[in-house]
Amino acid sequence: MVAPQGLIAHGRGEAFDYVIGERTMPAASVATLAAAALLLKAEWPVISVNGNAAALTGKEIVSLASIVSASIEVNLFHRTLEREKLIARLLKSFGAKEVLGVGSAASRTIRGISSSRANVDPNGIGKADVVLIPLEDGDRAQALEHDGKSVIAIDLNPLSRTSQVASVTIVDNVVRAIPALIRSSRKMKELPKSQLEKYISRFNNERNLANAVEQIVQYLQGWMEN
Ligand code: PTJ
Predict the structure, then answer these.
(1) Is residue 226 very low, low, confident or very high in pLDDT (cuts 50, 70, 90)?
(2) What are the structural domains of the chain?
(3) Proportion of the chain above pLDDT 90, given as a percent
């Protein structure tokens, strides 16, 4: 399921996890509330799954999708039909009823994406208004935002292109971020849309990313002093 390059991506993530102290920073918790509100308020929320996300949090992604009524779509950078099928099979084994984006189902092309991540399912990411993209860096987040969608990114690197252009970036490890999103979504599920809107409108991704970097610096300063 995981591309060989996924192992390098994993190591890149681990390096950042060490400098954030392998814990959920306050900035990530703030972003999680905005992300849960966005998912719950969305008309067509979609969770995009790549090899790393499936291997690390496949089970939790299926739970989250059911709580926020999101579709699940496989979308790979290193696309092969074999990997798509393996990932879809894993997600189905965790209870997903439908997994979009496999093979010829990914028949719509999003403009501005240079990789095969541009190919999406017209019934999934193609028509989504909110897309959750865990664990990736690249040009897709910007292209999806240009296509009128709100992107929620989960990325340990607050400086990545994806982190910088998403509507909401959760700077945390997916293995902590998805369970936290599940907890928040469960608590916020019954809130009226006006209340959800407040969580969204009060959130500023640029400011929150600056807070995340500040919290990393504080953590490292504390570490050097001890
Ligand atoms: O399965 P595929 O074919 O779609 O390929 C997926 C990978 C991950 C190989 C592909 O998207 C890729 O090469 O990603 P990058 O460009 O290495 O970016 C991965 C991003 O995820 C980096 O910014 C890492 O910091 C971040 N990251 C890595 N591990 C984690 C993570 N973020 C959150 N949690 C992690 N566990």
Answers:
(1) confident
(2) 4-16+26-216 (3.40.50.12640)
(3) 99
Q: Residue 30 CA to chain centroid, in angstroms?
A: 15
Burial 41-76 (b: 16+ CB within 10 A, else e): bbebbbbbbbbbbbebbbbbbbbbbebbebbbbbbb
Ligand 1 contact, 156 CB (< 6 A): yes
Locate 31 and state its tokens.
Answer: 């972003």
Which atom belonging to ligand 1 lies closest to the Cα atom of 117?
Answer: 4
Q: Is 65's pLDDT higher than 90?
A: yes
Q: Compute how many other C-beta atoms are within 10 angstroms of the C-beta atom of residue 144.
A: 27
Closest by CA to 208, choosing from 22, 39, 37, 28, is: 28
The bridge status of strand 108-109 relative to strand 168-170 is unpaired
Q: Which two tokens stand for residue 194?
A: 């006006």
Residue 155: CB within 6 Å of ligand 1? yes
